[in-house]
Design goal:
Chain lengths: 297, 154
């Protein structure tokens, strides 16, 4: 057997629709053979490796406003589907109001890959290891979609169904992700455990966002999102509830981290073992939550 | 499979190329235009040997379809030097001994040029971060980083 280490892309037809309606119609008419793509950073690799063989690749960049990165001080931030990660990182609005999102994007691969990689693509690829998913979840992201019956919105929290699986139906295209104005004075932290500091896939990813909130008994509200430790990205509600209802102490954070590790169902794979991952979720959750807490006080 | 006629500016010159849907920018540069300075290392966006500038921003050309580049401006390593003189990063990488086998060098030169265009005075940490997507198996990176520092001073 000859192993081709530089396989070319298999044959397909490149389709560039003129607008979103045309794109949705085409995708709906070819539910099993057409696939939308943005930067292609996941799709091309999977096609070369033979995991995916679409007959049609539908280029959904540059359609009806998908290139816009817009911040409104009343409604929040909208990141169009085709906005690449380097643009998100460089945006003064993102740096000022959603620095955690920039931090998450910066941890993805390399500069030249991020010229092509997009947040929406990262979400639609639905890898449990997706680096930007945690930040999108804790900021309460809402997806803007376009389907055969027109535009609609869906919260990101219910979007993931399994590795590579989402609630998208044939003809659906995610056109943007929207984030509401973050809680006043909030602090975020993304800890990515990889084999090296930059560029690698995560073995475990922990994203924490916290803010002071006088309406709950602890006076603090936290959100925690976990990557690479379950079939879908997790945001365990029990952690949020526990930290809202119990006085914030190092012991409380330890208990919250234990709850986080209990919520996981990691697997053994080439990047790390399940037992190791579970322990790392606990350790890194303590680290992330403590760091956020310290910055809030 | 359909073929597409695209117009593209490469290293300052206009080219018209006919490409199949599944041809990457890297294949088009190497096979249709004989610009073999752009190297094929991994075909997966990992190694950075195929890095070129697309509308001024570095991309892995193995991860871009040629057909997507219709109407764009591409700079490859062949386009870095002027008629009479090398780009400062080329000059510096020679002076600093940052080239051994040379396979990764075109991609590194492009990434370094792009870094200096957006940040003329980068800190070492910023140089390292900008080159994270360019693997070199010979030099150990130290002399490459030194050469980017030297080029920034030019």
């Amino acid at each position: 057997m000859i192993l081709d280490t530089h396989p070319a892309l298999p044959e397909f037809e490149y389709i560039r629709p003129a607008n979103l309606a045309e794109a949705s119609d085409f995708l709906a008419q070819h539910p099993d053979t057409a696939r939308p793509f943005l930067g292609g950073t996941d799709v091309f690799v999977r096609m070369r490796d033979g995991f995916m063989k679409p007959e049609f690749l539908v280029d959904v960049k540059n359609l009806d406003g998908t290139n816009e990165l817009r911040f409104d001080s009343r409604t929040g931030l909208t990141v169009g589907a085709a906005v690449n990660m380097n643009r998100v990182i460089a945006s003064p609005d993102v740096q000022a109001h959603y620095p955690l999102l920039a931090e998450a994007c910066r941890s993805v691969a390399s500069y030249q890959l991020r010229t092509r990689a997009t947040i929406v693509g990262n979400l639609c690829n639905a890898s449990p290891a997706g680096d930007t998913i945690g930040a999108c979840l804790v900021f309460g992201g809402v997806l803007h979609l376009h389907g055969v019956s027109g535009p609609r919105q869906e919260p990101l929290s219910g979007f993931f169904r399994g590795p590579g699986k989402t609630t998208l139906k044939p003809g659906d295209i995610v056109t943007a992700i929207h984030f509401p104005i973050p809680p006043n004075g909030c602090v975020g932290k993304y800890i990515k455990l990889g084999r090296n500091q930059l560029s690698d896939l995560s073995i475990v990813g922990v994203t924490a966002l916290g803010h002071k909130d006088s309406t709950c008994s602890s006076g603090y509200r936290f959100r925690l999102a976990l990557a690479s430790v379950a079939p879908v990205p997790l945001m365990p509600a029990e952690v949020e509830t526990y930290l809202a209802n119990n006085p914030l102490t190092p012991d409380a954070i330890n208990e919250a981290a234990r709850l986080a590790s209990q919520a996981c169902s990691p697997i053994d794979d080439v990047r790390g073992g399940a037992r190791y991952r579970r322990q790392m979720v606990r350790n890194l959750s303590v680290k992330a939550l403590t760091e956020v807490w310290k910055k809030l006080d | 499979m359909a073929f597409h006629k695209i117009n593209i500016t490469i290293n300052g010159g206009l080219e018209q190329v006919v490409v199949p849907s599944n041809m990457t920018l890297m294949q088009m540069l190497r096979e249709n235009l004989a610009l073999t300075g752009t190297k094929n290392g991994c075909s997966a966006g990992e190694c950075g040997a195929c890095t070129v500038l697309l509308n001024g921003e570095p991309v892995n050309s193995c991860m871009v379809l040629a057909v997507e580049c219709d109407g764009t401006n591409i700079v490859t390593v062949e386009g870095l030097a002027g008629d009479q003189q090398l780009d400062p990063v080329q000059e510096a990488i020679i002076q600093s001994g940052g080239v051994q086998c040379g396979f990764c060098t075109p991609g590194i030169l492009i990434s370094a040029r792009a870094l200096l265009d957006r940040n003329p005075d980068p800190a070492e940490e910023e140089i390292r971060e900008a080159l994270v997507g360019n693997l070199c198996r010979c030099t150990g990176y130290v002399r490459i980083i030194e050469s980017v520092k030297a080029a920034a001073k030019v």
